[in-house]
Amino acid sequence: MATPESNSRQADSWPNTGSSRREFLCRASLVAAALATKPVEYAFAVTQTGSPATRNAPAGAEISPDYRLEISEVEWELSPKKKIRTAAYNGQIPGPLLRLTEGKPVRIEIANRLDRAEIVHWHGQWIPVDVDGAMEEGSPMIAPGGRTRIAFTPRPSGLHWYHTHAGANRNLKLGLYSGLFGAILVDPPSNPARYDAEQFLVLHDWEPYYSASDDGSLMVSYVCGSINGRLLGHDAPMQVRPGQRVLFQILNASATETHWLTLPGHQFQVLALDGAPVPTQAKVDALRLGPAERVTALVTMNNPGVWILGEPRDGFRNAGMGTIVEYAGRSGKPQFTPPAALAWDYRTFADPVPAVRTPDVTIPLVFTSSFKGHGALDKWMINGKSWPETPPILLRQGLRHRLIFDNRSMDDHPVHLHRHNFELVSIRGAALSGVHKDVVIVEAETKVEVDLLANNPGDTLFHCHQQDHMDAGFMALFRYA
Ligand SMILES: [Cu+2]
Q: pLDDT digits over 361-372, tens only?
């Protein structure tokens, strides 16, 4: 069972930012533009073409795009008193929601207005390497001031996302520390609605800084956090009515932090993890999402009042990680009570009786760190090697590969595989089946086994989704033999 304490080197609270004095009822003007459900329609002048990506664009990419993304610097208002400068897509945080249809090709134009090269990764999509958006696989970066058009066929259905895949290293303004992220919902070709309303929640942490962890090495902490780009109390409350069934599409777009979410007096019925439907739609009091994880969950609104849906840990919630749920006709100060316990176990959502899978190939992957001294970042290793020294891990098409994630470090790691997903087959030695993910948290000093069906040829990046770990070598390439 996971508890926040098990993540021994994560900061459990943030510095007090005075949020207790925050006014909660600032409803006007701050409706999240982030939740636009239509393709963005605007024009921007094209100043430069001919980036390698444009030259490599697939056939059909010259037809007018379905979506346009423009990468630029913005001043973003997390609250009237908290403005930040960061990079964003289309001037908004999160970037526009892209609604795609499984199997229906989509064309996307991306303009990079920054003075540095950028790259957009389509997290969760089973697409070719030239459009996946990872330099290590060979996808081209977009030159400063350049633009590119890409086309791909979205699959699988479910909640996914897009984000920068540029490294940050020691610069806490770059990579996923920035505002370069947005949600994607891939609808199945037919999608009978079984809910009354749909709400997207995109979590992010802001104003990162280095602090010392227990052993004296450096870790990243944050001043504040937001849901849909606003600090708690500075977004329009979500309006609900008794009996309403609200489908929450939740994405943790934090560069490094795992988050918990609760809605007092309500339960989340989990329908999908990382976009993939789960076999057991269990109800839970609290959700846990590591960086890059997604949860699709249904909540029946059956406890009228005004509530905070947010981080149960006071430090995070008081620093902005929450949003207000307001029942029709109710008013007053939003209420929050923490759940009795924070527990999360992927097995809760698995097949009631685990199916036995027999792998064709077994690949042990041992995660370790080397302590580089006080005031330094750890170097991370897979099987004793740090990227770019990590040798390619060979896959054979059509075979079932059992990956043994053996975390021999004191940190939890949300590990991610590009262009594929995998099925969880054991956690701490306990078998499970039916849970398919593309990110899994491997808790400190535990083993998680997953099965990967090698069915999407091409180089495939595998890495810890914590930006600081990835930048410090926690990365390897899977290569089809
Ligand atoms: Cu990690």
A: 999 999 999 876
